[in-house]
Amino acid sequence: MATITRQIGPADHGQRMTLDEYIHADFVDGWLYELARGVIVATEVPGPDHGRVVRRLTRMFIVYEDRHPGVITFGAGGSDCRLRLPGMQSDRHPDQAIYLDPQPPGPNVWTRWTPHIVVEVVSKGGEDRDYVEKREEYLRVGVSEYWIVDPGQRRILVLCRAGDTWVETVVAAGATYRTHLLPGLEVRPDELLGE
Fold it and tell me: What is the tens place of the pLDDT at every residue in 89-107?
């Protein structure tokens, strides 16, 4: 029996869909798509300011990998990884995901391989998505640390797992954050956010 593939575009924003339907859909180019608790989210590609912060994050993690080989097994951006939460009917593409465990063998890797660190850069209009929705989803899927980089507030909110809750640390401009997950890494909001 043939499967009918549905095409999703920006006009589908807010429409309901199952995770299975979403996984098998085709997407209209030029937009970013996620499935948030069974609802299609279509957003415009973030602007250059967002991209500059993501690029600085990427560079920071690559430099760390070069200086500390073997610690990070996979570092990925939004187009290179996904977090699938079948129980929540969600499919997320974080701005950065850092994996410390080896990739599990076999198919369906995105439902079985959880990053230790996930980073989202807040875009105007996406605050609720990053601060509320993804906060709960990333906790539920098993992420150890969730960093919310907020250019508007000039800070990073670091959420560290403590059992089934998050412990919050605000890293303001001028401060430095160090994570036990990546010994030797120093994260400075001023360097990531730029002027």
Answer: 989 999 999 999 999 999 8
* 77 CB-near residues (< 8 Å, 6+ apart): 54, 58, 95, 96, 97
* Per-residue confidence band for 34, with pLDDT thresholds at 50, 70 and 90: confident
State residue 27's pLDDT score: 92
- Give bridge partners of residue 4 from the DSSP assignment: none
Six-digit token string for 102: 């080896």
Domain match, 7 and 53 both: no
100 and 29 share one domain? no
> Hey, which residues does 91 pair with through a beta bridge?
35, 84
Across the beta sheet with 39-44, the strand order is: 39-44, 31-36, 90-92, 83-85
- As a whole number of angstroms, the distance between CA 166 and CA 14 comes to 28
Query: Which range of residues forms the domain containing residue 19?
Result: 1-45
- Reported residue count of the chain is 195
Same domain for 148 and 84: yes
Cβ distance 22 to 90 under 8 Å? Answer: no
Specify whether the CB–CB gap between 118 and 83 falls below 8 A: yes
- Which pTM does this prediction carry? 0.88
